Amino acid sequence: MEEIKINTEYIKLDQFLKYVDIVQSGAEAKYFISENTIKVNGEVVFQRGKKLRSGDKVDINGKEYIIIH
Question: What residue ranges do the domains of the chain occupy?
């Protein structure tokens, strides 16, 4: 599990995907979210504006991340 440090209260899912270099743009993030299985704390999510906070676990196609503050 890879730790991802953020300096704000939360990071939105689409911004997170850009931050970890999975996508390059917001439009690409929207498409990626619709075409892939992304889980936050075990629940599948489809909202690109989903707020990720410290302690949240993100699973993207089997690769796991944890948000730390």
Answer: 2-68
